[in-house]
Amino acid sequence: MAQEREIATRVASLGELLEIVAAIRAIAASQMQQSLRSLDAIRRYSETIRQALSDAATLLPADSLPAPEPEPSKSGLIVFCAEHGLCGAFNERPLRVAEQASAERKGGITLIVVGSRGGQICRERGMRPDLAMPTATHCAGVTGAARRIATEVYRMFSERRITGLEVVYTRNAGSQFSTIERRRLLPLEMPKVETRTLAAPPLINLRPRRLFDDIVGEYFFAALENAAMQSFFSENSTRFRTMEAAHQNIRDKSAELTKLARRVRQDAVTTEILDLIAGSAALTPE
Q1: CATH 3.40.1380.10 fits 26-193+203-241, yes or no
Q2: Which tens digits make up the pLDDT trace of 267-281?
Q3: Most CB atoms within 10 A, among 38, 155, 255, 271?
Q4: Is 222 within 8 Å of 45 (Cβ atoms)?
């Protein structure tokens, strides 16, 4: 009876755990769907800004267009990681890229880790990020998180702490496999200037140079927001798959314990019947 009660307790505990895992899985699935829609909107916005930047460049004198800059001497690296756990080895690959980048620069790199869980793992490995920032815990907060990151980056540029910036993030196209993207954000890689025949010249209220610089800022932010949203989607995609596997494992374990409980109960009943038969035989006179 003691073993039967113990098994029943374990089955009940697994049932409670199954409910928690199912809830986390449902939340991750919801965040994935929302971030997919946001990624589509960000893609359209980025394309609009890219075209606007190309059009604004045509308003500038040919000799004032920004020339390709050499490799920056003071480089910064933004690494997007997870805010919370329960997402498997999601943080391993971007942090490995950060370690490689730091080794290439012989430690002369300004490391910005975005994501509380990633920052913790980073410090456990002996890496000391120059700046660790939390990231969004829900889809609606990604844009705000990207703005806070952009503010810190602008401050570093104004203080001449960095002259270039790269970003590392996980990109997931909706399949089980994800890739690690490493892109240069600053100095900006200018889109190709396209000459378009317009019915009427654009009506602007700013000087061409001021307009161009403002759109450059939007172009940078669009690239940063895209990286943040891609990482957010990939984090929740990884968490969903992790919880899906855990959900199946818990169900399998619960089914095994239920079968064991039946066998234990059957053995107990059989033992009781045999005891009754043996007792009855002992009381029967020969």
Answers
A1: yes
A2: 777 877 777 777 666
A3: 38
A4: yes
Cis peptide before 187 (omega within 30 of 0): yes
Q: Cα–Cα distance between 266 and 275 in angstroms, integer?
A: 14
Both structure tokens of 158: 């104004």
- Give the relative orientation of helices 208-283 and 2-58 as an angle to the nearest 10 degrees: 170
Strands 75-80 and 109-114: parallel
Q: Give dist(CA 20, CA 5) in Å, integer.
A: 23
Q: pTM, whole model, 2 decimals?
A: 0.86
Residue 222 makes CB contacts below 8 A (sequence gap 6+) with 42, 45, 46, 49
**CB neighbours of residue 259 within 10 Å:** 10
Which residue stretches of the chain are H helix? 2-58, 92-104, 116-124, 142-158, 208-283
Provide the token pair at 236.
Answer: 């929740």
3-class SS string, 56-104: HHHCCCHHHCCCCCCCCCCEEEEEECCCCCCCCCCCHHHHHHHHHHHHH
Name the token pair of 8: 């029943």
pLDDT in tens, 41-100: 999 999 999 888 888 888 887 666 555 555 667 889 999 999 999 998 899 999 999 999
12 three-state secondary structure: helix
Residue 186's H or E segment, with its range, is strand 178-186
Domains of the chain, by residue range, sit at: 26-193+203-241
